[in-house]
């Protein structure tokens, strides 16, 4: 009985999480353009999507910025996490607090302040300013994810390595990083998702030369969202799921 | 892993566009608001490359232009924002000598109060906000004017736009005032009148009100004509009514913001959009109305004669364009909070 209740509860949670995605996937094959009624199976929205160069370009740009900013945010976040975990120094609490403040700040505040900063610095808005904006957005989350993984370590392992003559760099490279690998992957994926989804920070920090997907979709309100967006969502979900599955596989092989 | 990252960064370095030179144009617009073919054809004819970026509301576009100040050559504000940006000196005057096709525009869309003599703006698309009713329902059939929205039978069946100006228009027009009225006494009257309407509202929705109409969740909605057009295509029993008291017209215009760099290209594009065949192609593709008087011969019969998209002269004459109302907006906002708080 208990097992059935547990299974049912788990199923409910998963249904709640994944049902919207299923609905989008179903509608991407619906022949009706607007109504919620099912009007037959069609692949025409996928055809439309292939012909919609502006949407695909924006999707590609979004993917690019997400990969790069997740990678940079992971590198910076890992360093920050390692420092916070490994050392006790003056101002450590302030650094901690700084990261949390960034996580709690509303996107609109981050977006506008970054824009004012970039304009003050005389930077042309485009790929680089967007990248800086997204790294700023993702880094605290990446740092927090990696930090919590570090905290779960057995500290004696690190001490043993030091006793055996490992340098600081060797400890980090040979002991800490491999042990933290699952946390690193999680942090990277979280940053990737944050970057891919972000509308508000992107709106303020990108320029006319580098338009990303969420802005394209978000701005369709004048005429209503078109079904080829559903098709695109399904493609993006498929790509993301594949990436997650692959990364899990790679991790398993390593350990 | 290292190699891949390096490869990605290298590709990026090569793919980041060089800084804008001649023969380019930066258009800032709602997405899917201009057909790709129209833009591609312009590039084919002139060699000018058009870079499009998007915003999702007038407010967002205004904020970005106000803060960034440059990088965009053409923007598409609605009438009230043309008025606002003109008064704040954020727009560049147009060189009419380069807009040889300007005369193609219908007179009722030019020389409006928000931009007298069209010094700064070229009308792009227009439409109305009026009443969509589901005639399959008893309560929907009974509605022919704004006054009818107060009918007790409508309680819980009504959809209003999530927009303070559009909602106030309902009350102001019912009372016989202009929808750009700023007289505090009139606004208070309108507020008092709206207070009794709010309990009837099932939902405030400006994004996709057609969904609620089509699903039968509401039987009457104050909506954009574009939404009504689509709803009517899906379900012919949903009809669109232009209230006797008058209603609001919206007009999106193209303007050149201060700080634009490619002025020749921007004027060339404006003049291209004013061509009757191009205006017709845009209107047909989007299902919205073009202000171009000469375009009608290129527009398919079924769109041209559909009064949701192209109302008759007599009906159109009852409409009024929204303009920026300056300081009075604060009063509107204050009333709006009180109205929505009373839900």
Structure explained in plain terms:
The complex is a heterodimer of chains A (255) and B (343). Chain A is mostly helical and 255 residues long. Chain A folds into two domains: 1-42, no CATH class; 45-252, MetI-like fold (Orthogonal Bundle), CATH 1.10.3720.10. Chain A has helices at 2-27, 44-51, 53-86, 92-104, 107-120, 127-151, 155-163, 168-197, 200-205, 213-218, 227-254. The two termini of chain A are 36 Å apart. The model of chain A has no long low-confidence stretch (mean pLDDT 88). Chain B is α/β, with parallel strands linked by helices. Chain B has two domains: 2-125 and 251-310, 3-Layer(aba) Sandwich (D-Maltodextrin-Binding Protein, domain 2), CATH 3.40.190.10; 127-248 and 316-341, 3-Layer(aba) Sandwich (D-Maltodextrin-Binding Protein, domain 2). Chain B has 14 helices and ten strands. Chain B has helices spanning 2-15, 36-46, 58-68, 79-87, 138-141, 164-174, 184-195, 209-214, 225-234, 263-273, 276-286, 301-304, 313-316, 328-341; strands spanning 24-29, 49-54, 74-75, 121-134, 158-160, 201-204, 220-224, 238-241, 247-255, 319-321. The radius of gyration of chain B is 22 Å and the shape is globular. Mean pLDDT of chain B is 88; it is low at 1-21. The interface between A and B is large, with 40 and 45 residues. Chain B: One of its GO terms (molecular function) is polyamine binding. Chain B: Its main location: periplasm. Chain B: Keywords: Periplasm, Signal, Transport. Chain B: Pfam families: SBP_bac_8.
